[in-house]
Write a structure and sequence with these properties.
CATH topology of the largest domain: Aspartate Aminotransferase, domain 2
Radius of gyration: 20 Å
CATH architecture of the largest domain: 3-Layer(aba) Sandwich
Order of helices and strands: HEHHEHEHEEHEHEHEHEHHHHEHEEEH
Strand content: 15-25%
Distance between the termini: 46 Å
CATH superfamily of the largest domain: Type I PLP-dependent aspartate aminotransferase-like (Major domain)
Number of strands: 13
Shape: globular
Largest sheet: 8 strands, mixed
Strand order of the largest sheet: 2-9-8-7-6-3-4-5
CATH class of the largest domain: Alpha Beta
Structural class: alpha/beta
Oligomer: single chain
Helix content: 25-40%
């Protein structure tokens, strides 16, 4: 077990005045913001050192994707997931979100149809809406304490014009690590479709004994029709640096997906994203193990102290909290009145819930939970 004390996750980090999306929205108010999914932890020392060295160099010209980063990605997915890929399969992107929107536009014809999970991180659905492309919502259901797909609804939702299935693995906001058998059934049900899998939380598995499994790693048949979207920015907390990638085995699919990338419609990653990712993959594993241990402690605090129903969080640092029994019209507003800002569930497809980002210092988390407990106990008026 990693020692979270080997790295300092407890010292408060002042984010006010740093242009933080999460903190600026409630600037000047007595509000603890635990909504947007970035953490309040400093990036690993190795990442900070690598970025400082690049700044010291002093020249920030146009940058090509480094071959050593491609190789680091190849080696990492082989080591962690036993998934053999080739460097040529990697398409670099400025972020996972642009990859989702690119997929909906480039891989589905205007008269095509998509399958989108619900609840889910909003950009999977927004990608379909803004393309715009017809789509069906495929519900996840709570079964034995885990959010899993309603496979019968998925079967019924398939149409002759269906072209693409969006997957979020691990699931955001539900926190599910999908098991091999579950992924195999999903692959079987969608065997005529392209799969676009958002796997940005792949390194944030909290549950001992579980491991992330990329759906493309199941079999070559699945890999040849899958676009796997990944980034180190969530795991190591440098999303503003801007670096993600798609792993696409099939050459024709890769060419179609990346047409706008090669045409410079979509810009390349930041040089700082390349530098940070390479440093994290080369030297960040001990820090990551310590962070996961710290996050497990935070998760356990949320599940133990809040007193509202939620699925056990197997992965991510996000709790999906059922507020339907709270007796309030709007749970987001209720908690905000008590000084905690969460993400409203309607954003992800279910207004009965809120999403709670627990990737923060333990003292701040304790303060937020105390405020939320007060809100629960007082049952704030409508």
């Amino acid at each position: 077990m990693a020692d979270a004390n080997a790295f300092d996750f407890d010292s408060p980090v002042e984010r006010a005045g740093t242009w933080s999306m999460r903190w600026e929205r409630y600037a000047g108010r007595d509000v603890i913001p635990l909504w947007v999914a970035d953490s309040d932890f400093r990036a690993p020392p190795a990442v900070l050192e690598a970025l400082a060295a690049r700044v010291e160099h002093g020249v920030f010209g146009y940058t090509v994707a480094p071959d050593e980063l491609r190789q680091a990605i190849v080696e990492r997915v082989q080591r962690l997931y036993r998934w053999p890929i080739e460097p040529a399969w990697i398409v670099f992107l400025p972020g996972v979100v642009p990859g989702l929107h690119l997929a909906a536009r480039r891989l589905v014809p205007p008269d095509g149809h998509l399958l989108v999970p619900t609840p889910v991180y909003q950009h999977l659905k927004r990608a379909a809406e803004l393309a715009p492309r017809a789509h069906s919502d495929i519900p996840l259901v709570l079964r034995e304490g885990r959010w899993v797909f309603d496979e019968e609804t998925l079967k019924r939702s398939l149409r002759p014009e269906s072209r693409l299935f969006f997957l979020c693995n691990p699931h955001n906001p539900g926190g599910t690590v999908f098991r091999r058998a579950e992924l195999e059934r999903l692959a079987g049900l969608t065997r005529d479709l392209i799969i676009v899998s958002d796997e940005i939380h792949c390194d944030l598995v909290l549950e001992s004994g579980l491991a992330h499994l990329p759906i493309a790693s199941l079999a070559r048949e699945v890999s040849r029709r899958t676009v796997t979207l990944m980034s180190a920015s969530k795991t190591f907390n440098f999303p503003a640096a801007g670096c993600a990638w798609a792993i696409i085995e099939d050459e024709a699919l890769r060419r179609e997906f990346s047409a706008d990338v090669h045409a410079h419609v979509l810009h390349s990653p930041s040089v700082f994203g390349y530098v940070a990712t390479l440093a994290a993959f080369r030297h960040g594993d001990a820090w990551l193990a310590a962070q996961l241990e710290y996050l497990r402690g935070n998760r356990d605090q949320v599940e133990r102290r809040l007193g509202l129903p939620m699925a056990h969080v197997e992965a991510t640092y996000l709790a999906w909290i059922d507020c339907s029994g709270l007796g309030v019209e709007n749970a987001y507003d209720c908690f905000l009145r008590h000084g905690v800002a969460l993400s409203p569930g309607a954003q992800f497809g279910d207004a009965r819930f809120v999403r709670f980002n627990f990737a923060t210092q333990r003292a701040r988390l304790d303060a937020a939970l105390a405020r939320m407990r007060a809100a629960v106990e007082r049952r704030a008026p409508r």
